[in-house]
Amino acid sequence: MATGFFTSVDEVAARLAEAGYLASTAVATTVFLADRLGKPLLVEGPAGVGKTELAKAVAAVADARLVRLQCYEGVDEARALYEWNHAKQLLRITAGRDETWDQARTDIFSEEFLLPRPLLTAIRGSEPTVLLIDETDKADVEVEGLLLEVLSDFQVTVPELGTITAERRPFVVLTSNATRELSEALRRRCLFLHLDFPDAELEQRIVRLRVPGLDAALAESLVSVVGALRALELRKHPSVAETVDWARTLLALGADTLDDAVVRATLGVLLKHQEDIGHATEKLALA
Amino acid sequence: MIAERLTAFVHALRANGVRVGPSETVDAAAVVEVLGLAHRERLREGLAAALLRGERQRAVFDATFDLYFPLRVGAPATPTAEVTELRDRLAAALTAGDQAAMAAVAAEAVQALGRYGNSPASDGYSASQTLDRLRPQILLARVLAALRADRATAPDFTERLQADEIRRRIQAFRDMVGTEARRRIAELRGTDRIARRAVAPTVDRIDFLYAGRDQLAELRRAVRPLSRKLATRLAARRRRASHGEIDLRRTLRRSLSTGGVPLRPAYRHRRPQRPELVLLCDVSGSVAGFADFTMLLVQALRAEFSRVRVFAFVNRMAEVTELISPALGESAQRILTEAPVMGLHGNSDYGTALGEFADRWLDAVGPRTSVLILGDARTNRRDPNLPALRLIAARARRVFWLNPEPPSLWDGGDSAATRYGSVVPMYPCRNARQLGALIERLLPV
Questions:
Q1: In chain B, which residues have their Cβ closer than 8 Å to the Cβ of A179?
Q2: N or C: which end of chain B has fewer CB within 10 A?
């Protein structure tokens, strides 16, 4: 059942931190549970809070290969599961002109002509695997049906070959930006984790980990400014990635304290809409 | 023991509108087994992962969790009776941003200041009484002064943000007092009863008619996510609908290249024509919250329509399309002050308003227009002016009336709901969830 990467919640937090991912209690607990109960982990949250990063970090600490299925509108079975290599099959048939149809048929529907796509790849291997299904909400509803079989039984049926069952369960992470409500059936098979913006203390640690040259006092100030911006009603709130970008910008500019001029000049790093910038300038009373 | 607690907890969640099936309950039990009961916050996150299916349910979950897995049992060990001392300690905790100390003060404050009644049947603990006596809001200046004194260096940029930060901490403290008071009452009266009553509903289930100021603000914040979701669904419906029938002429011409065998059929794609939308909103006091939310939602969805026009009325009709913006605060309030929606008196009058619309803006309604009328159809016993509504309905592609009152109230008092309902279809629309479902279902592709 269990993927068996971790033995305790504390271990999850510590090892993820070593890999450069600072996990909150919620993240560490849920990752541990997903590992222990062998259930897929559905991570939802605004863009740029580190949903994809989490899967990569888990793969890194567990020394597992990362198999990634990037979902988009129109992704289908052939892109997600497997496909027969038609060109190669045709070549094989043309090459063996003298043999009977029965011989050819058994031969061209064998492993050699199968093109495994991410889902099948993740299930087939025997080494530890992290399967990342990214932006699940972008895929069509039909693909969810496909995922149901894979995620509940960890098996894939190829009519010509039979059913392929996972020897070793992959650690599955699904991410979603919640642009579309995922189906109830899919949600029920997963553990749910809402990843939100980190609290001020955690965000300071993240910034200082990612931007090592940054002064502690400046990190505190800039995180509190970002916190204030997130409390405003904006079209898009600054994400963790943008906080880190901003910290890098400030470091590059050589600013050691925040003042009106610096903030106004660099606000574009944090906010990506003109009306947001106007709104924030007004609310922060930038002179 | 723990199994009973868990099932009682799950039942309480269900009673509060969180859908939890048996399989989730089994998962939750597995979570408890794996995590143990040693760390309360881990247990909270673990159970949330197993039981919840969306972030919107989180507030309900947290409040219920605090009731069923309380931080402590009974009264705090060292109760302090002095208001001033509690205030001092709260100020210190707020200055340091120390959550645990704030929670301790909250517990003691509820014990010392929140108790009311003296007979066993009628006594209890009140959060509002505690807060009235403690008045944490007056600490703002003091905490700010303390922070300023702390800071050795010159004031820097972040100082202007501190007031807001402290206000957020005070709000967090108020929430803690609420949680603590609920927990204490639950100990007196039994957890199950309190869980059913004292937990606030999720945002999308807040009744428009009874929403308070905070809830309306929360609703406004929910507009963007909801509109994004609706837009995706409308787009998907439109995409599916444009899979047209086979175009025979083009299929035959194509088949010539494959020796007359129609290998690749050609489809007749319908030209996507985005519908127009006209919104008529009653913005009088009784239904203002509903109108406000719907106007914002429709405005956020305007990319899905070729044209959106919004009209508002109390007893006069006025076009307010330009006045609506989420950044500008409460639209209904602005409309009341800036647009001529009221005549000589301030009571709503649907008949006159509809008549005026039919006179002046009937050209806004054409064969591609869907008209949504929002209001409780309470005309203060004036003439409902059904012919005007018939005129609008005859020109429009579709007309719907969304009524924030439940159908059981439609015929009480001065409501003309049934009479209007005989001309155009009328739907009850009491919360954001119903509104989303109606917009998705009703609007043509």
A1: 228-229, 232
A2: N
Domain extent for B380:
213-241+273-442
In three-state secondary structure terms, A134 is strand
Identify whether B195 is part of a domain.
yes
Give the confidence band of B244 by pLDDT, cuts at 50, 70, 90: low
B252-261 per-position pLDDT tens digit: 888 887 777 7
Q: Do A188 and B23 touch (CB under 8 A)?
A: yes
Q: Are residues B23 and B116 in the same domain?
A: no
Residues of chain B above pLDDT 90, percent:
4
CA-based torsion, A110, A115, A121, A123: positive or negative: negative
Which residue type does B107 have? A
Please compute the mean of the pLDDT values over residues A105-129 and round it to a whole number: 87
Q: How confident is the model at residue A43 (pLDDT cuts 50, 70, 90)?
A: very high
| Claim to verify: residue B258 and residue B180 sit in the same structural domain | no
CB pairs under 8 A between A and B: 103
User: Are the C-beta atoms of residues B368 and B273 closer than 8 Å to each other?
Assistant: yes
CB distance B406 to B430 below 8 Å: yes
Q: Which amino acid is at B133?
A: R
For residues B232, B233, B238, B239, the Cα torsion angle rounded to the nearest 10 degrees is: 70
User: A247-275, pLDDT tens digit by residue?
Assistant: 999 889 887 777 888 888 888 888 888 88
Question: DSSP string covering B207-272, please?
Answer: -GGG--HHHHHHHHHHHHHHHHHHHHHHHHHHHHHT---B-HHHHHHHHGGGTT---S--B-PPPP
Q: Is B54 close to A225, i.e. CB distance below 8 A? A: no
Inform me whether the C-beta atom of residue A228 falls under 8 Å from chain B C-beta atoms.
yes
**Cα separation, A40 vs A228, whole angstroms:** 34
Q: Does domain A9-75+125-194 have CATH number 3.40.50.620?
A: no
d(CA B18, CA B15) in angstroms, rounded, equals: 7
Among candidate residues A186, A243, A187, A241, the one with its CA nearest the CA of residue A218: A243
Report pLDDT digits (tens) over A214-241. 888 888 888 888 888 888 777 788 988 8
Domain count of chain B?
4
